[in-house]
Amino acid sequence: MFSTARRRVLDGLNRRYIYGRLPLLHSIIFLIEMVAAMRLATKFNSYYAEKPVLTTMVTNAILGGIADTVAQLITAFKTRPVRREYESSDLISIEIHDLDKEKPPALGELGQARNLPPVFDFERLTRFMSYGFFMAPIQFHWFGFLSRAFPLTKKNPTIPALKRVAVDQFIFAPFGLVCFFTFMTIAEGGGRRALTRKFQDVYLPTLKANFVLWPAVQILNFRVVPIQFQIPFVSSIGIAWTAYLSLTNSSEDD
Questions:
Q1: Could you tell me if 232 and 64 are in contact, meaning their C-beta atoms sit under 8 angstroms apart?
Q2: pLDDT tens track for 23-33
Q3: Domain spans of the chain?
Q4: Where is it mainly found (predicted)?
Protein backbone atom coordinates (compact mmCIF):
# COMPACT_ATOMS: atom_id res chain seq x y z
CA MET A 1 0.00 0.00 0.00
CA PHE A 2 2.76 2.40 0.98
CA SER A 3 4.76 1.43 -2.10
CA THR A 4 1.77 2.09 -4.36
CA ALA A 5 1.14 5.50 -2.81
CA ARG A 6 4.82 6.40 -3.09
CA ARG A 7 4.89 5.45 -6.76
CA ARG A 8 1.81 7.56 -7.40
CA VAL A 9 3.47 10.56 -5.76
CA LEU A 10 6.72 10.07 -7.68
CA ASP A 11 4.86 9.64 -10.98
CA GLY A 12 2.92 12.82 -10.26
CA LEU A 13 6.07 14.78 -9.44
CA ASN A 14 7.81 13.45 -12.53
CA ARG A 15 5.01 14.89 -14.71
CA ARG A 16 5.46 18.40 -13.34
CA TYR A 17 7.92 20.99 -14.58
CA ILE A 18 9.22 24.30 -13.27
CA TYR A 19 8.61 26.95 -15.92
CA GLY A 20 8.17 24.14 -18.41
CA ARG A 21 11.87 23.31 -18.39
CA LEU A 22 13.15 21.70 -15.19
CA PRO A 23 11.49 18.53 -13.91
CA LEU A 24 10.18 19.13 -10.41
CA LEU A 25 11.27 15.82 -8.86
CA HIS A 26 14.83 16.10 -10.16
CA SER A 27 15.04 19.70 -8.92
CA ILE A 28 13.82 18.79 -5.43
CA ILE A 29 16.41 16.03 -5.10
CA PHE A 30 19.15 18.35 -6.36
CA LEU A 31 18.23 21.01 -3.78
CA ILE A 32 18.24 18.44 -0.97
CA GLU A 33 21.71 17.28 -2.00
CA MET A 34 23.01 20.85 -2.20
CA VAL A 35 21.70 21.61 1.30
CA ALA A 36 23.45 18.48 2.61
CA ALA A 37 26.69 19.49 0.86
CA MET A 38 26.57 23.03 2.29
CA ARG A 39 25.90 21.77 5.81
CA LEU A 40 28.85 19.41 5.52
CA ALA A 41 31.07 22.18 4.15
CA THR A 42 30.43 24.42 7.17
CA LYS A 43 31.86 21.80 9.54
CA PHE A 44 34.24 19.98 7.24
CA ASN A 45 37.43 20.93 9.10
CA SER A 46 36.18 19.71 12.47
CA TYR A 47 34.81 16.48 11.01
CA TYR A 48 38.02 15.88 9.07
CA ALA A 49 40.18 16.44 12.14
CA GLU A 50 38.27 13.76 14.06
CA LYS A 51 37.55 11.20 11.32
CA PRO A 52 39.32 12.07 8.06
CA VAL A 53 38.51 8.89 6.13
CA LEU A 54 34.83 8.78 7.09
CA THR A 55 34.45 12.50 6.36
CA THR A 56 35.99 11.98 2.94
CA MET A 57 33.68 9.03 2.27
CA VAL A 58 30.54 10.99 3.14
CA THR A 59 31.73 13.99 1.13
CA ASN A 60 32.43 11.83 -1.90
CA ALA A 61 29.03 10.16 -1.63
CA ILE A 62 27.15 13.47 -1.53
CA LEU A 63 29.12 14.97 -4.41
CA GLY A 64 28.69 11.79 -6.44
CA GLY A 65 24.96 12.01 -5.85
CA ILE A 66 24.93 15.63 -7.00
CA ALA A 67 26.83 14.68 -10.15
CA ASP A 68 24.41 11.91 -11.08
CA THR A 69 21.42 14.12 -10.34
CA VAL A 70 22.88 16.75 -12.67
CA ALA A 71 23.28 14.07 -15.34
CA GLN A 72 19.67 12.95 -14.89
CA LEU A 73 18.54 16.59 -15.01
CA ILE A 74 20.38 17.03 -18.30
CA THR A 75 18.73 13.93 -19.74
CA ALA A 76 15.28 14.98 -18.55
CA PHE A 77 15.77 18.50 -19.90
CA LYS A 78 16.88 17.23 -23.30
CA THR A 79 13.93 14.83 -23.56
CA ARG A 80 11.28 17.12 -22.10
CA PRO A 81 7.99 16.97 -24.01
CA VAL A 82 6.73 19.75 -26.26
CA ARG A 83 4.55 21.87 -24.05
CA ARG A 84 1.41 23.80 -24.76
CA GLU A 85 1.28 27.48 -24.00
CA TYR A 86 0.75 28.30 -20.35
CA GLU A 87 0.51 31.43 -18.30
CA SER A 88 3.83 33.03 -17.40
CA SER A 89 2.68 33.26 -13.80
CA ASP A 90 2.22 29.49 -13.62
CA LEU A 91 5.34 28.35 -11.76
CA ILE A 92 4.57 24.64 -11.83
CA SER A 93 2.33 23.17 -14.50
CA ILE A 94 1.32 19.65 -15.48
CA GLU A 95 2.16 18.07 -18.80
CA ILE A 96 -0.84 17.03 -20.94
CA HIS A 97 -0.39 13.79 -22.83
CA ASP A 98 -2.55 11.87 -25.24
CA LEU A 99 -3.32 8.68 -23.35
CA ASP A 100 -5.39 5.79 -24.64
CA LYS A 101 -8.55 6.01 -22.55
CA GLU A 102 -9.48 2.41 -23.23
CA LYS A 103 -6.07 1.16 -22.15
CA PRO A 104 -4.65 3.47 -19.52
CA PRO A 105 -1.03 2.82 -18.59
CA ALA A 106 -0.27 0.61 -15.64
CA LEU A 107 0.72 2.33 -12.44
CA GLY A 108 4.40 1.65 -12.85
CA GLU A 109 4.29 2.83 -16.46
CA LEU A 110 2.83 6.27 -15.80
CA GLY A 111 6.24 7.86 -15.84
CA GLN A 112 7.11 6.13 -19.10
CA ALA A 113 4.16 7.35 -21.13
CA ARG A 114 4.86 8.65 -24.58
CA ASN A 115 6.77 11.94 -24.62
CA LEU A 116 7.54 11.77 -20.92
CA PRO A 117 11.19 12.01 -19.87
CA PRO A 118 12.63 9.08 -17.93
CA VAL A 119 11.58 9.04 -14.30
CA PHE A 120 14.23 9.86 -11.72
CA ASP A 121 16.34 6.75 -11.24
CA PHE A 122 16.90 6.34 -7.50
CA GLU A 123 18.77 3.07 -7.96
CA ARG A 124 21.23 4.76 -10.28
CA LEU A 125 21.65 7.59 -7.76
CA THR A 126 22.36 5.02 -5.04
CA ARG A 127 24.97 3.33 -7.22
CA PHE A 128 26.85 6.58 -7.79
CA MET A 129 26.72 7.57 -4.14
CA SER A 130 27.90 4.10 -3.13
CA TYR A 131 30.78 4.22 -5.59
CA GLY A 132 31.94 7.57 -4.25
CA PHE A 133 31.60 6.34 -0.67
CA PHE A 134 33.60 3.14 -1.12
CA MET A 135 36.20 4.65 -3.45
CA ALA A 136 37.07 7.45 -1.01
CA PRO A 137 39.39 5.40 1.28
CA ILE A 138 41.45 4.33 -1.75
CA GLN A 139 41.70 7.94 -2.89
CA PHE A 140 42.57 9.06 0.64
CA HIS A 141 45.52 6.68 0.93
CA TRP A 142 46.60 7.35 -2.66
CA PHE A 143 46.79 11.11 -2.11
CA GLY A 144 48.66 10.48 1.13
CA PHE A 145 51.16 8.31 -0.74
CA LEU A 146 51.70 11.00 -3.39
CA SER A 147 52.29 13.67 -0.74
CA ARG A 148 54.90 11.50 0.98
CA ALA A 149 56.58 10.28 -2.21
CA PHE A 150 56.79 13.73 -3.80
CA PRO A 151 56.86 16.33 -1.01
CA LEU A 152 56.49 19.93 -2.06
CA THR A 153 59.33 22.24 -1.08
CA LYS A 154 59.27 26.00 -0.81
CA LYS A 155 62.30 26.24 -3.06
CA ASN A 156 60.87 24.31 -6.01
CA PRO A 157 57.28 23.06 -5.52
CA THR A 158 56.41 22.80 -9.21
CA ILE A 159 58.56 19.77 -10.10
CA PRO A 160 57.16 17.53 -7.32
CA ALA A 161 53.64 18.63 -8.25
CA LEU A 162 54.24 17.65 -11.88
CA LYS A 163 55.59 14.28 -10.73
CA ARG A 164 52.44 13.73 -8.67
CA VAL A 165 50.28 14.53 -11.68
CA ALA A 166 52.23 12.18 -13.95
CA VAL A 167 52.05 9.27 -11.51
CA ASP A 168 48.39 9.97 -10.75
CA GLN A 169 47.35 10.14 -14.39
CA PHE A 170 49.31 7.16 -15.68
CA ILE A 171 48.62 4.83 -12.75
CA PHE A 172 45.55 5.86 -10.77
CA ALA A 173 43.39 7.30 -13.56
CA PRO A 174 43.27 4.06 -15.63
CA PHE A 175 42.78 2.06 -12.43
CA GLY A 176 39.99 4.36 -11.25
CA LEU A 177 38.07 4.01 -14.50
CA VAL A 178 38.41 0.22 -14.31
CA CYS A 179 36.94 0.36 -10.81
CA PHE A 180 34.14 2.67 -11.94
CA PHE A 181 32.91 0.67 -14.91
CA THR A 182 33.34 -2.64 -13.08
CA PHE A 183 31.41 -1.42 -10.03
CA MET A 184 28.60 0.10 -12.10
CA THR A 185 28.20 -2.90 -14.38
CA ILE A 186 28.07 -5.38 -11.50
CA ALA A 187 25.74 -3.14 -9.48
CA GLU A 188 23.42 -2.96 -12.49
CA GLY A 189 23.30 -6.75 -12.59
CA GLY A 190 25.57 -7.16 -15.59
CA GLY A 191 27.85 -10.14 -16.03
CA ARG A 192 31.14 -10.79 -17.76
CA ARG A 193 29.69 -10.19 -21.23
CA ALA A 194 28.24 -6.80 -20.25
CA LEU A 195 31.50 -5.82 -18.59
CA THR A 196 33.52 -6.80 -21.66
CA ARG A 197 31.23 -4.80 -23.92
CA LYS A 198 31.47 -1.80 -21.60
CA PHE A 199 35.25 -1.78 -21.74
CA GLN A 200 35.31 -2.32 -25.50
CA ASP A 201 32.91 0.53 -26.20
CA VAL A 202 33.55 3.28 -23.65
CA TYR A 203 36.73 2.70 -21.64
CA LEU A 204 39.31 4.13 -24.05
CA PRO A 205 37.20 7.17 -25.11
CA THR A 206 36.58 7.96 -21.45
CA LEU A 207 40.28 7.59 -20.61
CA LYS A 208 41.15 9.99 -23.44
CA ALA A 209 38.61 12.49 -22.10
CA ASN A 210 40.22 12.07 -18.67
CA PHE A 211 43.62 13.08 -20.07
CA VAL A 212 42.09 16.24 -21.53
CA LEU A 213 40.60 17.46 -18.25
CA TRP A 214 42.42 16.11 -15.25
CA PRO A 215 46.12 16.92 -15.70
CA ALA A 216 45.41 20.65 -15.49
CA VAL A 217 43.05 20.16 -12.54
CA GLN A 218 45.54 18.01 -10.66
CA ILE A 219 48.42 20.44 -11.20
CA LEU A 220 46.35 23.11 -9.47
CA ASN A 221 45.24 20.62 -6.84
CA PHE A 222 48.70 19.36 -5.90
CA ARG A 223 50.36 22.74 -6.23
CA VAL A 224 47.92 24.95 -4.29
CA VAL A 225 45.27 22.99 -2.37
CA PRO A 226 46.06 21.75 1.19
CA ILE A 227 46.03 17.97 1.46
CA GLN A 228 42.85 17.77 3.57
CA PHE A 229 40.95 19.59 0.82
CA GLN A 230 42.47 17.78 -2.15
CA ILE A 231 39.88 15.00 -2.39
CA PRO A 232 36.90 17.36 -1.82
CA PHE A 233 38.40 19.72 -4.42
CA VAL A 234 38.75 16.89 -6.92
CA SER A 235 35.24 15.68 -6.12
CA SER A 236 33.81 19.18 -6.55
CA ILE A 237 35.48 19.67 -9.92
CA GLY A 238 34.53 16.08 -10.59
CA ILE A 239 30.81 16.86 -10.46
CA ALA A 240 30.98 17.71 -14.16
CA TRP A 241 33.27 14.74 -14.81
CA THR A 242 31.07 12.31 -12.89
CA ALA A 243 28.01 13.67 -14.69
CA TYR A 244 29.84 12.89 -17.93
CA LEU A 245 30.62 9.38 -16.66
CA SER A 246 26.99 8.95 -15.64
CA LEU A 247 25.77 9.95 -19.09
CA THR A 248 28.40 7.74 -20.73
CA ASN A 249 27.53 4.75 -18.56
CA SER A 250 23.77 5.15 -19.01
CA SER A 251 24.02 5.73 -22.76
CA GLU A 252 25.94 2.49 -23.10
CA ASP A 253 23.23 0.70 -21.12
CA ASP A 254 20.59 2.10 -23.47
A1: no
A2: 888 899 999 99
A3: 2-253
A4: membrane
